[in-house]
Structures
1.
Amino acid sequence: MAGLDSTGFTTKVLSEVISDLEGYEKEFIDSNISTESDEVLGQLNTTIGTPLQSQYDLGQAVYDAFNPLTAEGVSLDNLAALISITRIAGAASTTEFQLLTGTEGASITQGSIIENPINGDRFTMDSTTVLSLSSCVSATYTVKQVLNTTEYTLTINGNVVTYTSDADATAAEIVAGLKAYNDVTYTSATWTLTVDGATDELTIATSDSSDISISSITYISADSVSDYASASSVEISGVVAPSESVTGIITTTSGWVSTSNTASYIVGRETETDTELRARLLVSQQASSKGTLEAIIDSLNNVAGVSSATVAENVTMVDNTGSGGLPPKSFEAVVQGGLDGDIGLAIWEAKPAGIESYGDTPEVIVDSEGENQTVYFTRPTIFETEWTITLETAPGASTPLDVETTIQTAVVSYVDSLGVGVDVIPSAVYPLIYDALAGIIVTLIEVRELSTGSYVTDVLPVSSDSFANAETGNISVTGA
């Protein structure tokens, strides 16, 4: 019987609804009444039956909306919310190492647009950055006045670098003298000085990525200053941006000369699909039942911007920190993406009572009693990889164009798809190369941790608190 009963919901098609109408008419009007489709009553039955049948469709849709196996879109979101699970939002690809270069005082405002000129992917600046010599990662200087027997002085992080020119001064002599004084005097400095012999240009740059402060006298002054800024892809998805690829400036700004990402963007993710959410909903523990690893992972995955989250625990009373493990009765969340404050709160709300959180990133949150609580988690470190791919041209074929670039792009795409703690498997790159190129044979793919260890062809292990990265400059292609 159609409708809702203990077996579920049963719907009716239009022909069944019309048949019911005809039965009622024969029962209550005249058993011999004609209901042929080409007569008035038959046409009336179709006219009435169509909206009646649509009510069954509505009932079926409502019934399906409460079934996690059939619910879609907002209905599936509503079901997941009943057990405190939310759809994982899409996350933009991000970097904190978008290098901005320009003149002193140039202001690159939040929302300014830059792009990868090769494929047109666009990115926006996350906040306003004012280029300043008092806080920068590098600056270039040239001698503005060449004076004999004159003291030239730079001050870097409060440390004086000086050189007195001779009786026959040149710009080359002055910048070389400043570099020499710095190298001899500040052997443990967190900055370096380099000289371009072709232009007599002196570059001062941080050597540990922390900002430096520079000032000088009027005889030598800065031509440009550079600093890092954070940026995000306009498209909320897994946009791949290898190092040195985002170099186009779309939003013209006075004094802003150039830009480039010195590291690959951390790849974002697409919004969780119905299929993915349904699978997680069916296997996930209720996020409202706190205290389990699954609940903590669920809580972290629901934080905006988080692209990967793993949790490890030590359930024993043995202190394993000496061997790279965890303290007794503790857990460590390794989280990529998201804001520190949001992550700290998500951990606090899901963690077991009396169990210690562990990690290298502390975050203070306020509990329900108004008390400050420090939560710890770990940000993954970059595991830089170095690749060698050996090729030969297939018999009777000609070598394709742009072989090296195409293969480098394939490798970077593969590595960027790996999450935190996921090992690198070189053989996974074979199909990507063959999909992109014809007429070549890949004879060997090897990978190692950059500048250390030995090349492997099977599996390159990645620790649970790291994620693999590949830069095009570290991918060599031979034999093409």
2.
Amino acid sequence: MYYRQRNIGKFIGKGEITMATSLAEIRARLQQQDTKTQGTGDKGIYAHWNIPEGATTTIRFLPDSDPKNSFFWVERAMIKLPFAGIKGQPESKPTWIQVPCMEMWNETCPILTEVRPWFKDESLKEMGRKYWKKRSYVFQGFVRKDPLGEETPENPIRRFIISPSIFGLVKSALMDAEMEEMPTDYERGLDFQVTKTTKGGYADYSTSKWSRKESALTTDELAAIEKYGLFDLNSFLPKKPGDVELKVIKEMFEASVDGQPYDMERWGQYYKPAGASSGYNASATSAASSVVVDDAEPEAQVSVAPPFTPNASVATPSEAPKPSGQKAEDILAMIRSRQKKQ
């Protein structure tokens, strides 16, 4: 049996209660944030970036099971550290490691602390963009139209890794006064249509949009929510680094800037490249270690310049990491020296 109140989005099923906030609260929170200037093997993740050019997939977003989350998504901020290769593997190709940015937990990120001043120097801006955080957003919901023709998993509630460009379209519509209902409402919610085109040789999703017509969840969709429950989206964020992990991240960052290869024996217990276990004792990496698996869509991995360089060009995922022409210590020493003089 289901019990829900449309205005507050309450749904009770199988002993669990999930709560979605009002649209007005979401708008207030988004405005507050603006004021502050702020491929995967997991079948639970729907890879919408793999749909054919010109195709559209229809998604129905669902609320977060965490009642403390005012939104129906969580933000993920990651930093990619490029390396020339892997130490001890002469034939290894350029690779990269993805690590969590501490700003995800509203704490100081040691990498961004070093990188921010680089944008004041024209000769360091390009390198600064390479090490800037990449945002993506984790949602959950149903795939109502699937151009990929995938077999639906046993649990049809999928997760979506949404890039900043698509998220901007989601957010702008939420701020539109003409949207009267929560789009995650079970009876009068809205589908979101992700359309893939190309622009300048790259995937473009700018024509994606919310459906104009409201629709109710189907009996099968409601049954799936009752049977499986909604996800706590925070559980899909990376593990927060502790003191040891932060030290490792700092070491990897300096080695990356220096153009050194990735050292599996030194850092593999904490962070390692996806699929780099070949030739390495995988047992050394415990289940409790904070290994980061890349499940972000390719478009979301595009390097985005920080707020004070909004019109700067971006680097594409296909670009191979290039060793720096300067030593990391020299660059960091130069930056710190300039800061002291200011």
3.
Amino acid sequence: MPDTTTDSGLRSFVATAADSDFPIQNLPYGVFRPIGAQLANAKPRVGVAIGDEVLDLAALERSGLLTVAGGENVFAHGSLNAFMALGRSAWQSVRQQISGLLRHDEPRLRDDSTLRQAALFPREAVELLLPVEIGDYTDFYSSREHATNVGKMLRGADNALQPNWLHLPVAYHGRTSSIVLDGSPVRRPLGQTEGGKFGPTRALDFELEMGFFIGPGNALGRPVPIAAAAEQIFGLVLVNDWSARDIQRWEYVPLGPFLAKNFATTISPWVVPLAALEPFRIAGPAQDPVPLPYLQAAGNWAFDIELEVQLQTPEMPVAETIVRSNFRHLHWTIAQQLAHHTINGCNMRPGDLLASGTVSGPEPESRGCLLERTWRGEQPLELPGGRQRTFLQDGDTVILRGWCQGDGYRIGFGEARGTVLPAIDLASAAG
């Protein structure tokens, strides 16, 4: 049965602006809790964003309008893990059902005022929560432009890329306990810098990334073939893997990032399903040398996703766009990342998060972090009012956005926003 959920002609009975991130062609999943005095004890449940409203999937399932094979009450949980574990067949079935129920000419939900009141919430009437219980987190280094720029700063133009970089997707294992949701503040980290000095980082940076969540997972010792990647990739989110560059420079040899990365990673609240991105598949950059067979995939695995970063200082009345990039620039695709991660038999589990690494493009304005954008602080970023930034200061707010532009609609990812708080005072904290 062909997937009709991305048809550009679809319309919903829920009012949706032409520039909304969440038209009926998107239907991203999230976890929410209704707010208000009368709902003080409301439990988290799974929902879908449609226009400026949130559709309660647990309420639809209770009503009998939504059925999930093999997953009774799967949407009443406070995470997406149980649903993701069911696999692609269940994802496709549920998506088709939700799309059908929301169409402008389908009366079952549209004309049932009682059910609509119980199942549709204005966005401002809910609290969004982390959508997934994230068991493991891996951050890749998959943008050739980013890796080249950083390599030039560290080793010079002749040795910018390490010998392995064009042969495999480089990555490190991150920390899940400090993954936070859009809107969460980020405390400036303390740590050691060059020469064993100690104090707050003076080179706090953002990283413009995207990440994807694993569905069913694989058994220990059984790799995921690249041809099966679509069976495992549930959906994508925006990721800001905050970085302390001066701490990183001192600590990363020989084992890579540690305290410079594990203090905070921000993700967007809505998980855009892989199915919603199908119309935006495109050919990625040419890969030379040709990857080994286990990294060769049929079809296109790059996606035309516009990405941007905005920065707002405490003195600025509105945020300023400082980065414009695109996910299509990524050298190593998400399918290759997954295939490489599991080729040694590493077992993925439902809810594992794999992030792309900084997504930079060929132009200066497409460089996806301040380290590149200001070339290690040597070329300060000019902001309105004569202000400058080399790295982030306390009170600065960073906003990541992403979207695919379709024919009369857009598939958006919402925002991944965070504001920098001052470093903690160790003396007062100890007291």
